[in-house]
Amino acid sequence: MADVQTGFFRRQWQQDGPLGLIARLILGVIFIYASMDKIAHPAAFAKDVYNYQILPEVLINLTALALPWLELILGIFLLVGLFREGTAWMVTLLLIVFFGAMVFNLARGLDIHCGCFNTSAQGTDNSPMEWYVLRDGLFLIPACYLFYRTFWEKVGTARIITF
Amino acid sequence: METKRLRKNIWWAAWQSGAMVVLAMFIGLLVNEGRSDGLALVADWSPEVRLTTDEGNSMIVSLEEAERLCLDKKAVFLDARPPEEYARGHISCAKNVPWQGFEAYMDRVWGVIPEDAWIVTYCDGETCSLSEDLAKELIAMGYKQVKVLLNGWTRWTEAGLPVKKGDEGRQTAGIEKDRTSSHHLGATPCNIPERGNING
Lengths: 163, 200
Known about the structure:
- The complex is a heterodimer of chains A (163) and B (200).
- Chain A has 163 residues and is mainly alpha-helical.
- Helix content of chain A is 82%, strand content 0%.
- In chain A, helix 1 (7-40) packs antiparallel against helix 3 (57-80), helix 3 (57-80) packs across helix 4 (84-107) and helix 4 packs antiparallel against helix 6 (128-162).
- The longest helix of chain A has 35 residues, at 128-162.
- Chain A is globular, with a radius of gyration of 18 Å.
- With 200 residues, chain B is of the alpha/beta class.
- Chain B is built from six helices and six strands; from the N terminus they run αααβαβββαβαβ.
- Chain B has helices at residues 2-34, 47-50, 63-71, 83-88, 130-141, 152-158; strands at residues 75-79, 90-91, 94-96, 118-122, 145-149, 163-164.
- In chain B, helix 5 links the parallel strand 4 and strand 5.
- Chain B starts with a helix and ends in a 36-residue tail after the last strand.
- Classes of the chains: A mainly alpha (163), B alpha/beta (200).
- The interface between A and B is large, with 54 and 51 residues.
C-alpha cells in the first residue's frame, strides 16, 4: 500500500489522515466540476445569481464573474493541498452560504412561483429545490470534517506533541 | 498553547482566503475583459431592461392590453408554469407550455402557432423568470410578436379577470371558472387564432 503512494500523497496522508485526504479530494473534484459550466457561461450564471433574489443588483455580475474562479482555485488548492487553512475555511463557508440561500428561497416559496433554480430547458424535476438542499447538505459533511480536522484536531495533536 | 496555535490557524485562514478571493476576482475580470461577449460589471436588472429586444422594442404588455388581447382572442396566451400549477388555475384563454421541460411541449408551439401570431407569456410572482425565458426562446425560434405579462397570474386574478381550472387536455371542456369577472367572456375557450385573425 505504502509502495504505491507517491511522496506527495504520503505527505498529504500524514497531514490530514485518510479521512481528511478523502474529504479534500472529494471537495476538490466537486468544486472544480461546479466551476466549469459557470466559467463557460457567465451570462447564464449571472441570471441564476439574479434569480436567487438575495444579492443587490450591483453585485450580481461581479459575483457571477469571480465566484466560479474562486471555486476553481479552491478545487485545485484542495487537490494539491495548498493553503490548507484557507481552503478548509472558504469551502465550508461557501457551502453554508449556498445552503442558507437555498433554504431561504425554499422557505419563502420562490421556487414554487418561478422555478428559478431549474431554468434549463431540460429540467423536468418538479421538486428540484429539496434535492439541491439535500445535495448541498451532503457536501457539508466532508467540508465540516475537514474544517474540524484543520482547526481543532491539529491543535489537539499539537498539544499532545508539546506535552 | 493550543489557543496560540488556533489563533495562528485563523490568521492563516484569513489571509489565504483573502488572497484566493482577490486572485479569483482578478482572473474573473481579466477573462471577462478578453471575452467578446463579456458582461458589464454592473448591470441593470430591471424588467424594462431585461425585456427589451435587440431592436429596442419592449416585450412588456400591460394588464389592460393583455385583457383586451385575451378577450378579443387576438393573441395566444402561454402559461409557462408547471402543469400542476396550470391545472390549479390559469388565465381562461391560456395554453400550458411549461418552460421546465420545454422541449417536450414544443409540439404545442411549433407548427401550431403561426410565426406572426401575437403571443403573451406569463407565470406568477414578481421574480418569476419562466415567462421571460419562454418568451426569449420563442423569439429565438422566429416568433415576431412575443410579449410578457409580468407577474401575470397574480395580477390577472387580483383584477378579477376570467380564469379556468384543469389541465391542458381538459381545459377546453370549460370545466369551471372561479373569480371570473361579470362579463363572463372567459366562458368561451380561447382557441389559437388562425393566421389572418391577428393584428399586427
